[in-house]
Amino acid sequence: MHRLFESHIRKILDEQKPKTILEIGVLRGKGTLQLLQWCAENDAHLTSLDPVAWGGDLPEHIRQPMEGYKYKRGQENFDDYVVVPEGIEEAFRLGLEKNWTCVKTRSLDYLGLPEFQGFDAYFIDGDHNHYTVTRELNSIHSRFKPGNVVLFNDVAGIYSKKDLYYDPEFIPDEFKGGRKQGVLIAINDFLDSLSEKKLWRRTNCPYQFDILTKENNGLGVLKLV
Kindly report the CA angle at 155 between 145 and 45, in degrees rounded to 5? Predict the structure, then answer.
């Protein structure tokens, strides 16, 4: 998502002026760094969720993975793989951590906590499968307020209609490799679940969803109508 920050994302942030932001999925932290720089300039706070083990020059308490989680479990050459998030290292060098909360957990565990009361903006670039994205959206929907926005990566490209499981141990077997797969299909199914349908079109849907660009795996935005 970081490759779309200057062309698309910064404009949305500048217009919406969120004070609290939830980021699902950090990977190498390039997008996290951009969000933290924006937060520092706009008196906002970013919370980032990522369950994977991290290497590099980072505090020990955020290097550790979520208990029981193994990144790309079962994939060849990933048995001892550790992600080094260069963007997070740079954020600490710049002193941006005061605008940041890092939680080493899966999105569905965090969103299911009683203390989750909603954020002003959400950036979803986590586990790219129908099971996870559908449940993320249902949890966010329960706390959504006018003016909130959700931005998604991978609404185009291979994982828009095909599942990816970063750790398949956390996906129930009955939801793996099913007929419904991918980020875009999950978003559309979520919207369909809230809508009346007439002549194959959504009616009375509370949300508007737009694909802003199909470049760099696609960027989509969801907001209340």
Answer: 40
Write out the DSSP string of 45-57.
EEEEE--S-B-SS
Structural domain containing residue 49? 2-224
Residue 212's domain is classified under what CATH number?
3.40.50.150
CA-to-CA distance for 53 and 70, rounded, in angstroms?
A: 8
**Model confidence, pTM:** 0.97
- Check: CB of residue 56 under 8 Å from CB of residue 89: yes
Rg (CA), the chain: 17
**DSSP secondary structure code for residue 220 in this structure:** E
- Into how many domains does the chain fold? 1
Query: pLDDT exceeding 90 applies to what percent of the chain?
Result: 95
Strands 207-213 and 219-224: antiparallel
β-pairing verdict for 196-198 and 201-203: antiparallel
Give dist(CA 182, CA 203) in Å, integer.
23
Instruction: Pick left, alpha or beta for residue 187 (phi over 0 → left; psi -120 to 50 → alpha; otherwise beta).
Output: alpha
Tokens of 184: 């875009």
Interval 152-201: pLDDT, tens: 999 999 999 999 999 999 999 999 999 999 999 999 999 999 999 988 88
